[in-house]
Amino acid sequence: MAADARVLACVLMTLVLPLRAHKRLSSIQVFMQQPFGSWLRLNTAWNVLCVALSVLACRGWGIEMWQRGLRGMVALIGREGLRAVCALPYIRSVVRSEVAKELKSIEKSIHGEGDPTALLMLPREGLPCTRILERIQEANAAESAEYVGVAKKWAGIYHAPVGELVDLQNKVWGIYNCSNTLYEGVFPSVRKYEAELVSWAIHMLSGRSPACGLLTSGGTESVMLAALSYRELGRSRGITTPRILAANTCHPCIVKACHYFGMALTKIPVDESAGFALTAKRVRRYITGDVVCIYASAPTFPHGVVDHVSDLGNLATSKGIGLHVDNCLGGVLLSYMECMEDMKEPFDFQAWDFRVPGVSSISVDIHKYGNASKGVSVIAFRDPGLRRMTYVPVTDGCEGLYVTPTMQGARGGAVIAQAWATMLSFGHVGYAKFAAHVHQTHMLYQKVVSKVPGLYVLCKCHACIVPVGSKKYNIYAVASLLEEKGWNLATGQSPPCLTICIGERHDRIVDVFEQDLRAAVEFLDANPSHKPSGAAAARYG
Ligand SMILES: *Cc1c(COP(=O)(O)O)cnc(C)c1O
Ligand SMILES: *[C@@H]1O[C@H](CO)[C@@H](O)[C@H](O)[C@H]1NC(C)=O
Ligand SMILES: *[C@@H]1O[C@H](CO)[C@@H](O)[C@H](O)[C@H]1NC(C)=O
């Protein structure tokens, strides 16, 4: 608002200039009596001032246009035009009824005809514990039958939730069922687990003192805290709306972070010829005065590609900006792939952790390939000054000084203790074996995909994800046919692909996958006009 007012004021001032000149010229005699030079000097100074102010005020618009590029501007104008058309009364009512219909059908696909047993109000009297437990067991039985044994229903559970480790996890969870990290004096053991987990993660990422970090509830919170620290850094440099540069393959959580924290985000299309990786060459053009951070992924969720972090690190260093590496998905896995015994040949992706001097922060999920239960991730910073930017100490309340790490206040200690126990039970050797196993399964799935006629692996995927493309079939139709067979997949766009994320259990069902995939394309050969349906039509989360 203030920026727009500034622009308006400057434009008005610039417009007034010719009027002034005209008035003066019309009374030219007056001027002739005065030394003409001084009028010119005055006017030039005024002119320069106005132009300078206008340039300054319009800088934001200029940056925005530069960031979007010609195509982006055309798209923006198109979008705004479409929005204006949709706002016309008749069209608006048509759009609304279509949207309502669509929402209803989505709701129906999620909830069916509604649940007659739903408890919409808390009962007056509490139920006996045994009855509650029965109900929970009954409700969970069907679900867990689907995701425990069968990896088709992958559901973001990266490990096999059975066996000794799960017993340990359950016991630890029970022991800490009643704990609160806010009261670290009462629960010093939880504080110790938390500090050690962070330290292990930093070590895994080749971080050295004074690198530090925070334990968060998940990748999204880790990325948010990173974004917050860069925003504060930008503001300390006088940038009102700091900007982050990311690839269009970035995880949606960075969009959410920029939205929450009032930051600008430019999504840069990745280079197909560079195997869908974000390259320094692409990013360079977008570096404007308001950029505080480049956001790279190791690897990306849609394609499993590690961005060119090492090159981006050089670029970030030379421009004096930060580089965040989203290692949420590949955390643990990438770190340990390098120490796999039978994988001595170098991986064909660039270094992506603190070994790259320009990397200033890394988010790494312990609850994905770390084998821990959901609710544990680490955000690591190279410089404690950056972490400090995420703290909000409050001293003007009734409580004296109040400051908590992360975005949370009170937190349970169970999930932390459990993650600590999990990592400890693996050790380096355990994780290296785990990484080797996932890597081999990853290769197996790639082989299967490339054997099926009409389908191909979209690009050189470095870890855990197999992106499947097709020049012959509608890939969303393939995805929805697989979904009908019980597979839980994600899909991506530009270019269209279906995405399989490899978990620990996928090796057991690779044959089933091949059968189902072949059946899907054979079905499409027989029914070429089959339309995609269901969630596979376009959804992740
Ligand atoms: C999973 C993931 C995230 C977000 O993590 P959550 O734990 O789901 O909040 C961020 N980035 C990538 C690449 C991911 O795969
Ligand atoms: C849950 O926590 C309480 C309090 O610490 C403890 O007494 C109890 O044994 C715990 N439950 C389990 C199953 O360990
Ligand atoms: C991950 O946890 C599961 C569940 O306990 C276990 O079976 C599996 O072996 C673990 N992964 C590795 C590599 O140990």
TrEMBL record:
Its cofactor is pyridoxal 5'-phosphate. Its EC number is 4.1.2.27. GO terms for cellular component: endoplasmic reticulum; membrane. GO terms for biological process: carboxylic acid metabolic process; sphingolipid catabolic process. It is an enzyme of class 4 (lyase). The modification N6-(pyridoxal phosphate)lysine is found at residue 368. It comes from the Eukaryota. GO terms for molecular function: pyridoxal phosphate binding; sphinganine-1-phosphate aldolase activity. InterPro entries: GrpII_AminoAcid_Decarb (IPR050477), PyrdxlP-dep_de-COase (IPR002129), PyrdxlP-dep_Trfase (IPR015424), PyrdxlP-dep_Trfase_major (IPR015421), PyrdxlP-dep_Trfase_small (IPR015422). SUPFAM superfamilies: PLP-dependent transferases. Signal peptide: none annotated. The keyword Ion transport does not apply. Keywords: Lyase, Pyridoxal phosphate. Belongs to the group II decarboxylase family. Sphingosine-1-phosphate lyase subfamily. This is sphinganine-1-phosphate aldolase. The lineage of its organism: Eukaryota, Sar, Alveolata, Dinophyceae, Suessiales. The gene is SGPL1.
